[in-house]
Amino acid sequence: MKTVIDYIYSYLRRVDYMIWVPCFILSALSLFLIAGILDSEHAHTLRISNRNLVVQGVSALLGVFGAVIISLIDYRDLARLWKLYAPLCYALLMLTFFIGVGAVDRPDDRRWLLVPVLNITFQPAELLRVAFILMFAYHIYKVKDRLNHPLHLALLLAHGMVPVVIVYFQGDGGSALIFAAIMACMLFGAGLSWRYVAAAVVAAGISLPVMWNFVLGEFQRDRILQLYYRTDLLGVFYQQNQALTALAFGGSGGQGLFGVEADRVGVPEMHNDFIFAFLGESIGFVGTLLTILVMVVLWFKILRCAGKAKDMLGYMICMGVFAMLAFQAVINIGMNIAVLPVIGNTLPFLSYGGSSVLTSYLGIGLVLSVSMHSSKSMFDSQEE
Fold first, then answer.
1. Tens digit of each residue's pLDDT (9 = 90 or more) over 147-174
2. What's the predicted TM-score (pTM) here?
């Protein structure tokens, strides 16, 4: 028993509390928000129940446990073992094309797999994000100074585009965008030449007409156009219009989380993608600013860990996790305030969704592993 206590004490001495604290604050706030939605008259319309609150809480606890386990393993060992988890993650993702199911509130959106015994669903694309960060960081680490060589850069781009393409054809444009953002942020952080950055910007500009006419569907184009015209208030723009109404109704101090029945604004998916709107309605503009501040503190700590990493691999892992959490939050909030189109992205730690919460915590586990491990790993003496 004394050995176990000493081990726990040793872990607590090494861990960076200021990475954990923002996560715990956001998870606690998430539970209060979901409980507030359950207390409203819109719970039935959203088809959520107390089970959703339990799932969110259990997912957070499992995420914390998973993050602790990952933090105890040297990140270099995790990266080098990519052949074990990468095929599994991709296999699970591919299964959604054949036996994928829709969530309770999204029956036609088959991005999830069902776990029969537990009768719960999970989204493989979420778990793949963590695996992809490890794999892509290790790939960059292996090429190191040869990053800007055309052949190596082409291979890196091909590596990064694999999940983007698969997830996009799965119908999950939001996740595809996050994968692309992770790839771009990691390449930029690794020292991608500005000439390639400039070329990418020019190529993106040239390809915009092709994307608009041949890649985006009519509904996706309408979502973008409605950001400017805002004429279809009962159709394409309805969700965002309701979100803006809820945010405005919250004012500076909010209407409160519980006991607000008469004038509560009903926002579709307000427990999930649009939980930020419910947040603003409940605790107001000041509350949303404080929540964003908590997120920024977490992002800053992740970047600090990246700056203190002992090698490029650790630096790239932290940059990948930063990109995953920060871009996801920016896109989600942008959707809620109608400056970006609705593309289906959760708000890390806050939105309802076991897969999303678990993935966020596993990413934090990777950052903690980089922070806590600076000595040689057990594989360093072996040939890579």
1. 999 999 999 999 999 999 999 988 888 8
2. 0.93
In the chain, the amino acid numbered 169 is F
H or E segment at 114?
Answer: strand 113-115
Closest to 335 (Cα-Cα) out of 242, 259, 256: 242
Positive/negative CA dihedral, 269, 271, 277, 281: positive
Asked if pLDDT for residue 26 goes beyond 90, the answer is: yes
Backbone angles phi, psi at 149, to 5 degrees: -70, 130
Supply the DSSP symbol for 112: B
In angstroms and rounded to an integer, the radius of gyration of the C-alpha atoms of the chain is 21
CA 172/CA 92 separation, integer angstroms = 15
Strands 120-122 and 113-115 turn out to be antiparallel
* Cβ neighbours for 331, distance < 8 A, ≥ 6 positions apart: 174, 177, 178, 340, 343, 345
Residue located via tokens 């928000």: 33
Helices 238-250, 275-308: inter-axial angle, 10-degree rounding: 90
The answer to whether 179 and 129 are in contact (CB under 8 A) is yes
Which structure tokens are listed for 91? 């296999």
Contact 310, 377 (CB under 8 A): no
Q: Can you tell me which residue has the tokens 């503009």?
A: 285
- Going by C-alpha positions, the residue among 361, 351, 360 that lies closest to residue 52 is 351
CA distance 260 to 147: 55
Show Cβ contacts of residue 206 under 8 Å, excluding neighbours closer than 6 positions: none
- Give the number of C-alpha atoms closer than 13 A to the C-alpha of residue 337, restricted to the C-beta side: 10
The owner of tokens 């892992």 is 317
Selection from 335, 316, 328, 63 nearest residue 175 by Cα: 328
Question: Can you read off the two tokens belonging to residue 270?
Answer: 């307000």
Angle between helix axes 82-99 and 150-169 (nearest 10 degrees) is 30
